[in-house]
Amino acid sequence: MIHLSNSDLTLDLLDPETDRTLLGTRYCWGGYIWQVHDARVGPLVRGPEWANQRPDPFNGQGLPESFRFRRLDGTPLTWDGLQGVLIGGGTLITPASGPVAVAEPCAWELTYHDARLVYRTQQTALGYDYQLVRKVELAERTVVSVSQLTNRNPQPLAIEWFPHPFFALTDGLIQAEVPEGCTLPDNPGFSLAGKSLSSKKRFVGVKDGHMDFLHLPAGKTLRARMNHPHLTHVEFETSYIPSQCPVWANGLTFSIEPYLAHTLAPGATLEWSVRTTFGQPRTP
Q1: Residue 283: its pLDDT value, please?
Q2: Is the pLDDT of residue 192 over 80?
Q3: Helix/strand/coil (H, E, C) string of the chain?
Q4: Domains present along the chain, CATH in parentheses
Q5: pLDDT for 201-242, tens place per residue?
Q6: By the 8 A CB rule, do 118 and 132 touch?
Q7: How much is the mean pLDDT over the chain?
Q8: Quick check: 284 pLDDT over 80?
């Protein structure tokens, strides 16, 4: 593990070299925030298998981020036949038996600063050529995760990226404030009244859960405020305008996933970020 700390919080991040058994084909390997610890109340984020210390890498935990190699509808992005590229992970193969696997991981260069970690990688494979810089910054009780992607290929690069934060439930439920003007289809998992998104029911365990799509106001970035069992609140916001926004929960965690869809022209660079601010510990 790699650590970044101040007097309030400590971040545990997966090491792309030594923590490969916890990594997989879903999340970006560099800058993967595995856990956030508060000096007073302990771990603050969860996962679909919480508190399993070695969850399935597809599920993961903490504050991971993902570059899709296929769109949600299955359309290939950085995938061709039985091979593909996981941006920030490496080359992918489909074995004769078993799931998709990382065949050749990216090599990452890590630089430490006082309150920031900077990860750099570049990959040329299967007709793709990109450079990715990931920065994780810790300022008081705020975690900022920045991504900078450059397309070095003479062809355009279409991406779908999303953060997959796993927030803690309070008594098995989530209560969140989302932007005014959001809408949500009628569904069995969540209700939306004005700006208040809440659980309709308590899910039980890992496999019980529901995913739906929160429709955000056009042209707006996302800012959401969640309840937390040990803190006054958690705030989560994007620097970009999401293309779509799934919301998901099971019996152990809740996630809001604002997607970024973009096509990088040859030679173009795109930078974006997500910011998570953890409120103060509740007074006993």
Answers
A1: 80
A2: yes
A3: CEEEECCCEEEEECCCCCCHHHCCCCCCCCCCEEEEEECCCEECECCCCCCCCCCCCCCCCCECEEECCECCCCCECCEECCEEEECCCEEEECCCCCCCEEEEECCCEEEECCCEEEEEEEEEECCEEEEEEEEEEEECCEEEEEEEEEECCCCCEEEEEEECCCECCECCECEEECCCCCECCCCCCEEEECCEEEECCCCCCCCCEEEEECECCCCCCCEEEECCCCECCEEEEECCCCCCCEEEEECCCEEECCCEEEEECCCCEEEEEEEEEECCECCC
A4: 2-278 (2.70.98.10)
A5: 999 999 999 999 999 999 999 999 999 999 999 999 999 999
A6: no
A7: 97
A8: no
The pLDDT value given to residue 254: 98
Total residues found in the chain within this entry = 284
The pLDDT of 30-34, averaged and rounded, is 98
- pTM score over 0.90: yes
Q: Which residue type is seen at 222?
A: L
